[in-house]
What does this fold into?
Amino acid sequence: METQTALAIPDEDNCITVYVSTQLPEITQNVVADLLGIPYHNVRIISRRVGGGFGGKGMKGTHAACACALAAFKLRRPVRMYLDRKTDMIMAGGRHPMKAKYSVGFKSDGTLTALHVDLGINAGIAPDLSPLIPAYTIASLKKYNWGALAFDIKLCKTNMSSKSVVRAPGDVQGSFIAEAIIEHVASVLGSDTNVVRRKNLHSIESLTKFYSDSAGDAPTYSLVDIFDKLASSPEYQSRAEAVERFNGGSRWKKRGISCVPITYEVTLRPTPGKVSILNDGSIAVEVGGVEIGQGLYTKVKQMTAFGLGELCPDADKLLDKVRVIQADSLSIIQGGFTGGSTTSESSCEAVRQACTVLVKRLKPIKEGLEAKSGAPVPWSTLIAQANMASVNLSAHAFWTPDPAFVKYINYGAAVSEVEIDVLTGGTTILRSDLVYDCGQSLNPAVDLGQVRSQPISTSTCYC
It folds into this structure.
């Protein structure tokens, strides 16, 4: 993970260009302009890559950008800054510590009837993106059918560094609180924890009640099947028995195995995309999202090649002609922010729509050339002919989600086997198995990397 960094270069006409490692180019542009007292169009924010984000290059990136911009604006000289690791860690803040008190009602068979949670969230000295955390936490907590659910959440201002979003912000804490309550109920009843979990997974009716805006249709609700695939498998049972045998013969080291379901609610956001075909047939693409290691640019390049593929007789080679341009706040506006696990799909859809416009413009020319020659038209020939005919070879799209489908839920479950040294407290994750319903993947290789890295990233909260 690279630390926060920025380079500010003053320009003529009271303008300034800032190269900054940020997930929020548009917001950074606004903050810098407000600081300098100049119009937004006088500030250009360029973010080529982030060098590792996970939320830490969100609002925190504006500090470095503002410091460099102010110095460069006053001195009329380029100013560059990068933070040393210690300063960066102090400023980053990390995840939000939480304190939860709960009252839970349940029946003798393990069925939950009611839950009340009082939650205090340590936001640190300044808000940052803390106002988003309560909703994310509750969305994760609702993965079980609690019957009746009530909660009281307070964001607390403290004398600590400002906390920020970190991968799956609030969702990690909410899931932990839910599992702690389930474990407590199972312990009181003397029941198997998985039995209590399984009994209180949502039906489609209760899911619609708890997630009214994002539940979707019954065929899309896959959590129960996923959980059963893991928790009810013969392999899980044999591993659980092996854990019991190990604990019976080991005094200072103990093992445990657990199966945990996951729901992750996400929100789609309006996203711009621009596709431009140059005279030599090469293609420049711009999107509102920023590449933070999630494979955004790879997916956007593939979507561009797919969207224009029907115009090219050798569509497989079209991918090599595509270049995704760095995020530029003056070149493409309303880019929003990169985060929340939906930037890639939104950007790809915006690019697909832009490609559709270009196909509509170019298809008549392609058909006319093919009618004359009786053979497939090379891509370079098509573009040259379109350029001579003064066809607009650049298309912009601004994709907005269907109001009825702004939110949806991701489902998954994981089985983890863990060993703890009771003398030192040292914890070792021996094995984890994860099943995730990814829907229709845009790039399975990229998405598999994201799925594999998530448990590693979030498990550090508890080790």
